[in-house]
Amino acid sequence: TDDELYFQPCFSPVWDTALAMIALLDSGLAPDHPALQLAARWLLRKQVITGGDWQVRAKDAEPGGWSFEFENDMYPDTDDTAEVLIALSRTELPDERRKREAIARGKRWLLGMQSSNGGWGAFDRNNTRRIVNQIPFCDFGEVIDPPSEDVTAHVVEALALLGDAGSPAVRRGLNYLRRAQQPDGSWFGRWGVNYIYGTGGALPAFQASGRDMARLRFRRATTWLTTHQNGDGGWGETYASYDDPALAGVGDSTASQTAWGLIGLLAADSPRSEAVERGARWLVDHQEEDGQWEEPQFTGTGFPGDFYIKYHLYRNYWPLSALGRYRQALTHP
Fold it and tell me: Are 296 and 253 in contact (CB under 8 A)?
C-alpha cells in the first residue's frame, strides 16, 4: 500500500483447499457436491509423484505426498498430505478408481515417513540432530525437522479414517502422542499457536483411532481446555507462549483458536457440556453478517519464537468445521 509493505513468504493453496473441503463436509455439504468434486480433482493433480530431498533419509518411501504451495515438488509434507487424504476420502468423485489410487499412494508415502520414535515430522524422517542448530548462520529458526505432536496427530487421524486404526504405525504414533502429553494434560503445537492447537488436534486423533475417550489422560486434556476457556466462552493464546509456558492457553479469544478448543472438546466431551455450549455460542455470536469471522491475530506458526503466520482463511474454515461437528454431535451423540 502507499505507506506499508507486506511480505508474504509463500501461498498455502493445498493446505487451504483441503481444510476448506473438510469444513464444508463437516458442515453438511453433500460429498458429491460440484464444488467439492472440483476441488478434489485439483488436489489429485497436485499430488507429487517425483522425488525430493526427503529421499535422503527415506530411501524406501515411494513418492506420493502433497506440498503446501502451488509449486514445490521437492518438498511435499506429511501435514498437508494427511489433510488432503482426509478431504479426498470423504469426497465422492465419478472416477473413484483414480481417487483410490491417489489415496493409496499418499498413504504409503506417509507410512514411509514415520520417524523411529513413532512420530512424524513435517518434511523429513528422523531429522533430529539438534547440533545442526549451532551452526553460526542458523540464527533464523529451526533447520531440523523433528516429529511434532500436531503433525503426528493429523497423520494418525488420517490413517485411522482410512481404516488403519489398529495398524502398528498408528499404535506407534499414538504412543508418541501419549509420551508427548504435557503434565497439565495439553499438547504442544508446532505449526499453530500453540497448546490449544496441539490439544485440539491430538484429541480427534485418539477418537478417530477408536480409543476410550473417558480415560484419565483425555479427561486431563479436556480439563485443561475448560480451565483455559475465556470468560466470554472463546479460546485464545498469544504466540508469546512459545517463549513463556506460563502463557499457555492465555490470550484474547479468536475465531480459529476457539474452533480448535471446541473441536478438541467435541472429541472427548459431551456436546451438551457447558464449555462446549459456550464455545459454540461464542462462534455464533461473533460471526459477521457476510458469514465470515474477524481475526486480526496471528495464529499460525512458522518457527516458534521467530516468526508467525496469518492464514486469512483460518478465521472461516476452522469455525465452520467446529460448528458443523457440534451440530453432528448433537444430532448423533
Answer: no
The answer to whether the Cα torsion of 58, 62, 63, 64 is positive or negative is: negative
120-124-128 Cα angle (round to 5): 80
Which of 136-169 are b and which e, b meaning 16 or more Cβ less than 10 Å from the residue's Cβ?
eeeeeebeebbbbbbbbbbbbbbbbbbebbeeeb
Separation CA 58–CA 76 (nearest Å): 13
Between the alpha carbon of residue 214 and those of residues 132, 157, 199, 206, 220, the distances in Å are: 41, 18, 16, 11, 10
Q: What is the mean pLDDT of each run of 10 residues along the chain (333 residues)?
A: 80 96 98 98 97 93 95 94 98 96 98 98 91 70 88 98 97 98 98 98 98 96 98 98 96 98 97 97 98 97 90 97 97 82
One DSSP character per residue, 177-204 reads HHHH--TTS----SSBSSHHHHHHHHHH
Residue 191 · residue 183 · CB < 8 Å: no
Look at residue 140 in the predicted model and tell me its pLDDT: 61
- Helix (H/G/I), strand (E/B), else coil: 98: helix
Q: Are 153 and 201 in contact (CB under 8 A)?
A: yes
Instruction: Report d(CA 101, CA 287) in Å as an integer.
Output: 39
C-alpha distances (whole Å) from 233 to each of 174, 265, 296, 327, 330 are: 30, 13, 18, 18, 19
Q: How many helices (H) and strands (E) in the chain?
A: 11, 2
Query: What confidence score (pLDDT) does residue 138 get?
Result: 67
d(CA 47, CA 103): 10
Spot the catalytic one: 16, 77, 79, 124.
79
CB contact set of 53 (below 8 Å; sequence gap of 6+):
74, 75, 123, 124
Whole-Å CA distances, 211 to 59, 121, 171, 178, 203: 33, 23, 11, 12, 10
Distance CA 18, CA 86 (A): 8
**Measured between alpha carbons, how far is 253 from 293 in angstroms, rounded to an integer?**
12
Q: Is 145 among the catalytic positions?
A: no
